[in-house]
Amino acid sequence: MSDLDVTTPPVTRTQIVRFAGAAGDFNPMHHDEPFAQAAGQDSVFAMGQLTAAILGDAVAAWLGRDRLAGYGVRFKAKVLPGDDLVLTGAPVDGEPGRYELQAAKADGGEVVLTGWATTRA
Amino acid sequence: MSVSTTAVGKRYPPTVYAVGREKIREYAMAVGETNPLHHDVEAARAAGYADLVAPPMFCVVYCAPALGPGLFDPEVGIDFARMVHGGQQFRWGPLVVAGDEITTAVSVTSISEDGGRRYFVFESVSTNQAGDTVCVGTWTNIVRGA
């Protein structure tokens, strides 16, 4: 199996709003630009759950939806509208069935998520 | 001021979430997931599932109602204005499909302080209507100290 290396389309405000509805996350920081700016943010930004889901889906497609048994992420940085993400993953040496993962901004390379996945034996 | 750990071990009332076919489609669409298992009932059935399969991180949707009371529990004391980031880990059992009823119970696993940061860790255990454990989640919220 080759390593995971996928670049996503840019995250958009519409996608963030769509995810707010789908996941029931109505924190105004993620959809209300004046609210986010008053709180000191440059703009609204994606929920960590959205980024984790984008990476999780890519991992499921890579390893197989029915084989994916475990998944963990650490949130490292905010994803802003317009960011496209490079999703990477590779087997961990010496640990069969375990993979290390990362999501980084395509522009500049800032890491937004690190993580791991495991597959069923 | 050191962080209060009195809430460690606290359990919150389980919640039940009915997994809907259109909710799976809506969620998959929002994430940009195109796998037919999440959109096409016939494809899901042909692959051996009773109905549309939930994407992996759909667990956040069925766990959210169970997590809310703990996250906002004054005894836990998370200051959302100071939250910096966190992490999550999941172990999955049988795949969740449309029509499932998922019961999720949440407890406070640990509360600690290290290097000026406070770590609030919750565990969720989700079971389906057959009693299978479909997801065990560990949810870590990190908050800057006051």
From TrEMBL, chain A:
Task: Identify the residues that the record assigns to the MaoC-like domain, covering every copy.
Answer: 9-98
* Domain of life according to the entry: Bacteria
Q: Which Pfam families match?
A: MaoC_dehydratas (PF01575)
Where does the UniProt annotation place the signal sequence? none
Family designation: Belongs to the enoyl-CoA hydratase/isomerase family.
Query: This protein is called what?
Result: MaoC family dehydratase N-terminal domain-containing protein
* Originating organism: Paraconexibacter antarcticus
From TrEMBL, chain B:
Domain (FAS1-like dehydratase): give its ranges. Answer: 7-135
Pfam families, sorted:
FAS1_DH_region
Q: Which SUPFAM superfamilies match?
A: Thioesterase/thiol ester dehydrase-isomerase
Read off the InterPro entries from this record: FAS1-like_DH_region, HadA-like, HotDog_dom_sf, UPF0336/Enoyl-CoA_hydratase
Judging by the UniProt lineage, the source's domain of life is Bacteria
Q: What is this protein called?
A: MaoC family dehydratase N-terminal domain-containing protein
Q: What is the phylogenetic placement of the source species in the record?
A: Bacteria, Bacillati, Actinomycetota, Thermoleophilia, Solirubrobacterales
